[in-house]
Amino acid sequence: MTNADYIRQLLDGDPTEGLEPAWTNAALSLAERAQLISTLHMRSRLTLEGTARISGATPAQIQALLELATLDDEDLELVSKANPPATTWFLFAGAGPDAIRAGLEALSIGSLTPTAGTALVTVYDAMRSVSGPSKDERVASISGATLGHLAHKAKEYDVLTKNSRGLLVSLAKRKATGAQPTEKQLKYLTDVLLQLVQAGVVSRESHDDDQAMCDEVLDALGM
User: Fold this and answer.
1) Of 14, 38, 70, which residue constitutes the final position of a domain?
2) Above 90 in pLDDT, residue 118?
3) What is the dihedral sign for C-alpha 49, 51, 56, 60?
4) 114 lies in some domain
5) What burial class does residue 212 get, using C-beta atoms within 10 Å of its C-beta: 0-12 exposed, 13-18 middle, 19+ buried?
6) Distance, CA of 56 to CA of 24 (rounded, Å)
7) What are the backbone angles phi and psi of residue 100, rounded to the nearest 5°?
């Protein structure tokens, strides 16, 4: 059975029952999986969490696939062909053509140079270098109240290490005195914020009555 036939079979069946095989079938390309799960999710009328539970994915992975499915066909196929790590999906989903190409190029180079850092940070830095204003300036402007809130929220969601949560608390206190993060702290903070986005703790559709704070972080990260 070809992928096209398999996809058609899932689309003709119960959308809820199709979610798990759509997620687990390794023969599907990233583009096929994103488009298929997007369609099944819409038809099933499930919540993001419901689709994640039935498919076996995480809510963050499903959200990233739904956003990938909105890319232009050419851009989606480009990302799909490269088959980047799942941790970077949401970055490519929110990027323009030039940033996508920069991210994929950096990922390709990074795969040959382990010391270049994680795929997530490597792709993010490459995209931001193409997309304009300094990310450091935007991240440095995030309010102390938001950083303190994220430290508390990360603990509630049981994400981040103790040291990473401690950084958020420390920078929140520095903000209160008017002090700015150092260059080293900014790099660490950016990595921590990306982890929170990847984990779904910070999103454009927060259910924790903190949308303004989530938007502040996502705007600073350029997402």
Assistant:
1) 70
2) no
3) negative
4) no
5) exposed
6) 8
7) -60, -45
Phi, psi for residue 97 in degrees, rounded to 5: -55, -45
Residue 171 lies in a domain: yes
Burial of 118 (0-12, 13-18, 19+ CB in 10 A): middle
By residue range, what is the domain housing residue 201? 136-221
pLDDT digits (tens, 9 = 90+) for 6-22: 999 999 999 999 999 99
As a whole number of angstroms, the distance between CA 103 and CA 123 comes to 5
What burial class does residue 217 get, using C-beta atoms within 10 Å of its C-beta: 0-12 exposed, 13-18 middle, 19+ buried?
A: buried
Q: Can you state the angle between helices 211-221 and 144-157, rounded to 10 degrees?
A: 110
Residue 214 predicted with pLDDT over 80 = yes
Angle at 118 between CA 116 and CA 123, to 5 degrees: 85
Greater confidence (60 vs 41) lies with: 41
Supply 125's token pair: 């830095």
